[in-house]
Amino acid sequence: MTRKKISFPVPSFFYSFDTNAPFVQCTMCNGELQQFSKYFIEKVFKQNRVLNKSEIVYEYAICESCVSSMTSEISNESKVAITQLYEDYSENFLRKLDYLHRTEKYTIDSWIERCSLTGKEVRLCNEYAVNAIIEDGRIVYEHTPIVISDDFVLKIQEVLSKETKDTFNNYRDKITDGSPSVEDLIFSPTPGIY
Ligand SMILES: [Zn+2]
To answer: In three state form, how does the secondary structure of the chain look?
Structure first.
């Protein structure tokens, strides 16, 4: 039983860093996002230990149709392994979701303090990713927004097949224009994939 709350407006946290406004185009196909009933956002942060704050490393918005083509490129072996990994951590994940919905904490801060799977606080992560789903210009609080810590991304990496890793790396390079400053970062795919 997953509850769902759709909220307007989209929190500025999920705005494009460059424009400080909601995303307009799909990062992959450049299609107008508003022609899709649903799209996905991922933002990847790095912790600046000196300033003690999170800094954006890269971000993208992706339309439904690009998400399905990405999904189709994941090997079956990797899909099974990812599903199993999420199941292994589902107790923590579901308990958190239950709490957030039961107490109606429909403000973004409550959802992004900790890794949704491991419970690790984001301030303790060297890197972490935040994913959200936007539906008809509103933010969806359901099983997302979701936070994936560096620890959990490493676990995902461990179970992926070589082909799927290569696919993800290609997508990451496309999103970041192959910028060398992010080549060491691990790409964690959007929740739409699972
Ligand atoms: Zn697209």
So the answer is: CCCCEEECCCCHHHCCCCCCCCCCECCCCCCEHHHCCEEEEEEEEEEECCCCEEEEEEEEEEEHHHHHHHHHCCCHHHHHHHHHHHHHCHHHHHHHHHHHHHCCCCCHHHHCCECCCCCCEHHHCCEEEEEEEEECCEEEECCCCEEEEHHHHHHHHHHCCHHHHHHHHHHHHHHHCCCHHHCCCCCCCCHHHC
